[in-house]
Design a protein that fits this description.
With about 350 residues, the protein is α+β, with helices and mostly antiparallel strands. It folds into 2 domains: about 150 residues, no CATH class; about 150 residues, no CATH class. It is built from 13 helices and 11 strands. The longest helix is centred in the middle third of the chain and has 17 residues.
Length: about 350
Amino acid sequence: MTADPAATMSRPLTAAEQIEVYFEKGWSDGLPVVPPTAELVQAMLEAARLEPTEVVCEIQERHLRLTADKVAINAVMAGCKPEYMPVVATAVKALGCPEFGYHHVSSGTGGSSLGIIVNGPIVKRIGINFRDNMLGPGVRANATIGRALRLVMMNLTRARPGALDRATLGTPGKYTLCIAENEEESPWQPLHVDRGFRRDQSTVSLFASSTLITCYNNQSATPEPILRALAWGLAHPGAISLIDHSPGLVIFGGEHTEVIHRSGWSKQQVRDFIIEHARQTIADLKRAGRIPGEITPEDEHTYRQAMLPGADLILLCAGARSGSFSVCMSGFGSSRRDGRSRTYPIKGE
């Protein structure tokens, strides 16, 4: 993979022709890419203070070393601005975390999304959306940073459909998933502070999850009904977490955040409540074909938990102020083996 394949041609290619070359080479995610000229790649490297041959990530399971120049090429292709590159590079670095278990989360048949959570001052400086439609389209930083990570996975680690990506169905979150926390309006301290970083540090947290489930509740003035619905979303009868105990993620929208804030519940209380209620009876799991065997009377009152006590369930407050919506994303992998989220500081921030 070279920075500028057009440089080897007998005549300059038009922009449209260059885009077609990348489709033909199989270097796209199915959408048009920005041709990565040497000048654009160099701007990415300079913005992140990286040397071209510097190793950004080592993925021991794949015996791979991902260098900064190759990461920068994919960031350009994704449409990133140079100021996004420090976030992209940190997200790529996180792929090599042994507890994250990259091989499983990138190649399993469950087809997980790999999501980026950005915290700290860099969020506002580069314009990552954490309010209205923050999980949807419309903001370049969110869209291209998440896309850059996926292109790195596809082009540098062969995480491609039919190759090392063996997802049965996949999810739209595999195109791009980059979000930020609304730290200003959250009643709690932000994720990166929970994980030992200063509030004024900028960080990236990587997580693996199944696709999101929306929770709508505009009737409840107390947290319990909202949290029960989210817990059930994390532990629906088909959830991977009921087998592997993978924690996942919950994002509280503005109105649900206000309900919880008025109640005075701490983040730990919310986490403990969700973990306790994220479960299914053995009887219902047998009815759903998740557990073999005949249903016994005891099965109706015996539960299987989706998460182990003390699980590191990620809780964020973000999204628009209006609307009685929150979302949950069931985790992917095992809390004891892989898929565990980790947070990394952004270099130079």
